[in-house]
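Posting for a labmate who doesn't have an account.
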Amino acid sequence: GFRFTNWTEPGNGLRFKINVVEEGDYQIELIKRTSEANRGAFLSVYTEYDSIQGEPGIETSTLFPEVLHLPQAAQTLTIEVSKTGDSGQAMDWLDLIVLHRIPTSNQEVLLNAGIEIAGDSGKSVKGTFSDEIVYFLNGGEDIEFQLDAGEPFTVEPYADNLEILQQVEFFIDFESIGMVDAAPFKWSHQIESPGDYTLNAEFTDVNGVKNSARVQITAN
């Protein structure tokens, strides 16, 4: 997958268009590689509405302790180098940015949720999302599923508390192919032409919080 590099100068960074579906507090998690010799690096993360700073750290995953308060709106999320640190490179590369919604004390969220996709041949895989992820930008590896072109397959959501799920919309290559709004929220489909495809399932719970799970499909 893609890896975002060039974290070597103050001001270097990335900008992404995001659509926040619910106003609230969010935390940023970075999945990346950073040199163990690097100390003192700082990154700025901001939108038009709020900003934070944090150290990328030397771990593979870093969750910034500061919180972004974001309104329900389309906005631009920017992550950029403030200080490069001892090694002169704030990060070797960035694989993944995750924006975590911090639930209110009285708000239940979907737990251990995802989708299971199964073909007529009996093969199946699962694609998951973290409990509170509402938006992600992925440069890493996706879950992959192979089937024959024209082979029917089903996609079924799962969660520990599926009763709070309100609807699921399914996308192939980011074009909607259908939506279900009643349990068990199962969808059947088939891909006629050989090729590589991206299947997304967008969950909406009874509180209006949206999440998504993704699987890469290869039709042979």
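Reply:
Got it, the structure tokens are right above this. The two ends are 21 Å apart (CA to CA).
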